[in-house]
Amino acid sequence: MRKISMMIAVVLAFTLILAACGKSNGGNTTPSPSPSSTPSDTSSAPPAEDDITQKKVSISIYYPTPDRVEDRALEDDKIRRFNEVFPNVEVIKSDWQYNPNEIGIKMGANEAPTLFNTYASEGKFLAEKGWAADITDLFNAYQYKDQMNPILQDLFTVNGKVYGIAQRGYPTGVTVNKKMLEDKGIAIPSFDWTWDDMLNTAKAASDPNAGISGIAPMGKGNESGWNWTNFLFTAGGDILKVEDGKIKSTFNSDAGMKALEYYDKLKWEANAIPQDWALGWGDAVGAFAQGRTAMVIAGPDGPVDQALNQGGMTPDDILVYPIPAYEKGGKHYGVLGGDFLVINPNATKDEQAIAFYYATFDYFSDKGLESLERNIQERQGQNKFYVPAVFQYFKPDAEYGAKVTALFNKYDNVYQYGEETMKLIDGKAESPYNTQDFYGAMTNVIQEVFSKKGVDMKVQLENTAKFMQEKFYDTIQP
To answer: What is the residue range of the signal peptide feature (predicted)?
Structure first.
């Protein structure tokens, strides 16, 4: 009870600051969350009618998909503990998963959750469309804002305003079935590997007659273009540039051609990709977990989690690599991705404030650590692993980071990323302009390359650059 009272007091202080911020911005105030911790000097307290604990407030939240059983258990525990502090708040679980093709419809119909999950590329898009609440005042009043991981949090800061809350992130990497390579007598490549190393390993591991591929690059959905962009980056290219106040496509470059030619080699020279190559994220990661491919390109925690908890593999069976460098000594750039929480701008001020409290409820919290430890222990009892993200919402050198590391080191069922991988893996941010449209457009090109031998890749790349330029980039004022 003492810890809960202390938490209420902290939240009270937080919201009193918010109230002051709100009064200087149009007169909106953020109500106090707890009457029991209201100071005796009521002259500085908000009016009783603004006390959030005296109002019945409902928020809908992002809730993990049914296949993520352990994550749902964590969320359920968080809801229970949140309602101990905010018993007046109804927390509604939303089964909607963010989709860039659906968000406009959801917003227009006022059906989007109060708090929803999105990914790293969407900050500027959602801010400019007016589909993410400006939470700058809430964030600036947050006592731990300076301990948030800037690698992630800065992705949702647009023109000096904050539009999202970082959860976890990663540079895209390559997860490798080490056991499959060893069983086939294939040499384990160096972590400081190159495109040629990946190609040769994939070719050696591929067994089309047995339905096993050396690598499963994603071939459908926007994730296909996302996978390919890692090779554009490591070849030294970029999606676009801003020059003289205009945006210009740059992926139709020598680097873009090298990346396309590499995909062509994986398919037609090495015969290393699945025969049915039209795989989305779930298909490709599932193929890895089931032992039907030796390598998959993704944020590392997803394929590792499925391989260990659904595929029956052990930590000794798999390795996490950075994206291979174009040539020896080159950069191991992986597209920087992650999960972020966004607050619905159509929500009331009370709902937005409560959604922010909910989003950050376990951040930098001993209670959050206790919940996480219980989850790890439960997984241990079920012979399951906890797989953390490569990047967390907090700075790695923060005091709280040391607590998390100490917790992880207590349990042998917490997956630990290798030291060599962590030294080499490097993240490169996505373009803030129409990234998902770019991924979708490049998916069409990749499907041409995978389905037809001898495609004129230069023409394909030029046509796609022209499409992106005319349909999107020419209409943007950066």
So the answer is: 1-19
